[in-house]
Amino acid sequence: MFIRYFDHAATTAVKEEVLKEMLPYFSLNYGNASSIYSLGRSSKKAIDNARVQVAEALHCHPREVYFTSGGSESDNIALKGLAFANRNKGNHIITTKIEHPAILNTCKTLEKEGFVVTYLNVDENGFININELKNSITDKTILISVMFANNEIGTIQPIKEIGKIAKLKNIYFHTDAVQAVGNVKINVEGMGIDLLSLSAHKFYGPKGVGALYVKEGINFNKIQDGGHQEKDKRAGTENVAGIVGLGKAIELAYKNLDMYNEKLTNLRNYYISQVEERIAEVKLNGDKKNRLPGNANISFKGIERRRIIIKLRCKGNMCI
Ligand SMILES: *Cc1c(COP(=O)(O)O)cnc(C)c1O
Asked: pLDDT digit string (tens) for 116-127?
């Protein structure tokens, strides 16, 4: 049976071109990037190349890119690393109530360590309130962490505005951009972003690899001890094939982004309008305009989501 997959916010398939780039690093080029002979150097070169690919997508310097095991680890390093390195400056962190568990549960851990966290509300379209953000800032605030785009309702936050406020108040600004990278244009400098998390498997790259952007000059503690990889900030032999895949995937995602997004946005709007037209009592969740191009989140009155999913698994008596 031909499967139609509609869950790209959960994960995506690895693109063929991406897989092709990765394969040699499982077999022929298996060197450890820390080894100084040629086999190791070829792995190091591949990692350096991927770092440039990520930097070009984010508009930052390759030195500002750290490879990790994915979005969750990037979020952990960003929040814990920054919080512990800046403990002497303050213990207050501002985030939102709609973050991914990788942020919310990291904040819970930090609260047990003596940090105080403010969780901002969102309005009915999923936006934070800029005034609430401003009013939450105290002289103890060291970090604002607001997700770029929500993983369920697709709402894109006013990132540039948040960046401006953070800069004005001398507070670091982290964004979990795992849903946005590969789907939305990003310019960390222009948007005032100090730290940014991304994950390859959300944009047709492999699972288990991600990156963290940290603006040059910002100090953060490592959260894993070991070797000196990733400028001594993230110990462990690099996932070379994964990193190569991430680099290729991010390059491909931004190559034809405008054309692809125009098509995707049209399809999304068509889908939403057809559902609204054909089914009674439905409600689009999230904002109509400021949402991820590929995101549609709709509530159907009188039926719970589990039951819809179970029904959609089957066609006739064929089920997946
Ligand atoms: C998927 C996702 C994560 C987690 O990324 P992993 O690479 O799966 O650890 C974090 N934040 C958001 C918004 C996500 O969508």
From this structure: 999 999 999 999
**Residue 210 CA, closest ligand 1 atom number:** 7
Ligand 1 atom nearest to CA at 207: 7
Query: Which residue, judged by its Cα, is nearest atom 14 of ligand 1?
Result: 178
Q: Does 157 sit in the ligand 1 pocket, CB within 6 Å?
A: no
Does pTM top 0.90 for this prediction? yes
Q: Is 281 exposed, middle or buried (0-12, 13-18, 19+ CB in 10 A)?
A: exposed
In a domain, 13, yes or no: no
> Same domain, yes or no, for 29 and 84?
yes
Residue 232, classified by CB atoms within 10 Å of its CB into exposed (0-12), middle (13-18) or buried (19+), is exposed
Here the CATH number for the domain that contains residue 67 is 3.40.640.10
For atom 8 of ligand 1, the residue with the nearest CA is 71
To the nearest whole number, what is the mean pLDDT of the chain?
96
Domain co-membership, 156 together with 233: yes
Atom of ligand 1 nearest to the CA of 73: 9
Ligand 1 neighbourhood includes 147 CB (under 6 angstroms): yes
End-of-domain residue from the set 227, 253, 279: 253
- Is 76 contained in some domain? yes
Cα 38 to ligand 1 centroid, rounded to whole Å: 35
Query: Reduced to 3 DSSP states, what percent helix, strand and coil does the chain have, rounded to the nearest 5?
Result: 40, 15, 40
Among 67-71, 102-106, 303-307, 308-312, the least confident range: 308-312
Q: Whose CA is nearest to atom 10 of ligand 1?
A: 71
If you take atom 3 of ligand 1, which residue's CA is the nearest one?
A: 71
Residue 302 shares a structural domain with residue 231:
no
Compute the average pLDDT of residues 72-87.
98
> 205, 124, 195, 201: which is closest to 166 by C-alpha?
195
Helix 240-255 with 38-58: angle, nearest 10 deg: 30
Same domain (yes/no): 78, 147: yes
Q: Tell me the residue range of the domain where 285 lies.
A: 257-315
One domain for residues 287 and 219: no
Q: Please report the pLDDT score of residue 8 as a whole number.
A: 95
pLDDT value of position 1: 61
Mutate to test the pocket of ligand 1, among 99, 153, 199 (most ligand atoms within 8 A of CB): 199
Same domain, 71 and 186: yes
